[in-house]
Design a protein that fits this description.
Ubiquitin-like (UB roll), 5-stranded mixed β-sheet, Nucleotidyltransferase, domain 5, 24% helix, alpha+beta, 6-stranded mixed β-sheet
Length: 371
């Protein structure tokens, strides 16, 4: 089974990125996919010897190509050829841009490990209960934060009610504001907010936990799609769904259980409460998205192959049985149509520019798409 591995990059001027990958991944591929342009012209064949990096951690033993291209003194210092290294455990990569010719270039939003903050914290003073003219706690919160949607969970309101005692002149609270529009948490102490990105593949599910304040990806996970028990591909799963009265509920439950398991594991890894998850962004092919939402996929089983929705779909995550904060939003990206889904849209929006260049985009999965 693949294990998650952290690859820590050390640059000359201080700490670099903290990357996440899986055991068995090629180090050159990991670095390239995260924006590090490695020197070399042999396409990773180990024949030019130009992709030298200094390592500390778990990788495979030295290869014949490395013994041919590296000096004994370099090997003693920990130098390896990135294209010949398979990540086998936690790893430190020491990069000297000048000596190795390595450079860091933005290749589009897919490779950025940090993004702009979507959350801000604001200190707010809420007036206490006026015995002569009492006003509900919710109304006082809304009045103190005009122009914002108050989207606090039940647990959060109950927590605040314990502080809102008669005779207390005011409450000093920290408000957590998402996307400059919605207050998603209020409390005495500052509290972080997290989001989850999910790719619902036919064969595997992939997830990433993102700190919405720093923009950093703090954990990742991948699990097999256990719907395979009911069919290896979407066509056979559609047949199972159509032929069994409880088929849709069964397939939905499999997905929800797997998502909860992945989220629980990621939250445990970074020691946070799943209730701190405020939003989930989900992509996948149209059939998988219909299964997740519990929507009848019959329209995708026959011509003209049209589902019940194609546009962005926003829903309450807990209503699907996903273990998150009370008001966490589940956002499904728009789909192209037919069997071309939101995963293709997710790929397209990561392109740095589509006006000045031409791109050939290939998604080679259980189902393949070309744009």
């Amino acid at each position: 089974m693949l294990e998650k591995v952290e690859v820590v990059l050390h640059e000359p001027n201080g700490p670099g990125d903290n990357l996440w990958t899986f055991t068995g991944k090629n180090l050159l591929e990991v670095l390239t996919m995260n924006g590090y342009q490695i020197g070399g012209y042999c396409a990773g064949q180990g024949s030019c010897g130009k992709c030298k990096v200094r390592l500390a951690g778990k990788v495979n033993p030295l290869t014949t190509s490395e013994l041919q291209h590296l000096l004994p003194s370099e090997i003693k210092l920990g130098y390896r050829l990135a294209c010949c290294c398979m990540v086998q455990g936690p790893l430190k990569v020491f990069i000297d841009f000048q000596d190795t010719g390595i450079s860091k270039k933005p290749l589009g939003r897919t490779i950025d490990t940090k993004r702009e903050s979507r959350v801000e914290t604001r200190k707010v003073f809420i007036p206490g209960i006026d015995i002569d003219s009492p006003v509900t706690l919710y109304s006082r919160l809304a009045k103190a934060l005009p122009g914002y949607q108050i989207k606090l969970g039940i647990d959060n309101l109950n927590e605040l009610s314990k502080m809102d005692r008669i005779g207390r002149p005011a409450l000093e609270l920290n408000a957590l504001i998402l996307d400059q529009r919605a207050v998603i948490y209020m409390g005495r102490d500052e509290c972080g907010a997290y989001g989850v990105a999910l790719d619902l593949g036919t064969t595997s599910l992939f997830s990433a936990l993102v700190n919405l304040q720093t923009g950093a990806t703090v954990a990742i996970d991948s699990k097999p799609n256990m719907q395979r028990i009911y069919g290896a591909d979407v066509v056979s799963r559609l047949s199972y769904c159509m032929e069994n009265s409880e088929g849709l509920k069964t397939l939905q439950k499999v997905l929800v259980n797997t998502i909860n398991s992945m989220m629980e594991g990621m939250c445990r890894e970074v020691k946070i409460d799943p209730k701190r998850i405020s939003q989930l962004s989900i992509v996948g092919n149209p059939v998988m998205l219909h299964f997740l939402m519990g929507l009848n996929p019959a329209g995708l089983a026959a011509s003209p192959y049209i589902g019940l929705f194609e546009d962005e779909y926003v829903y309450n995550a807990q209503e699907l049985g996903i273990n998150t904060g009370n008001n966490a939003e589940l956002v499904i990206l728009p789909q192209v149509g037919g069997f071309i889904g939101a995963d293709t849209i997710a790929c397209l929006i990561t392109l740095p520019s589509v006006s000045s260049e031409r791109f050939l985009l290939l998604d080679i999965g259980t189902n393949g798409e070309i744009v």
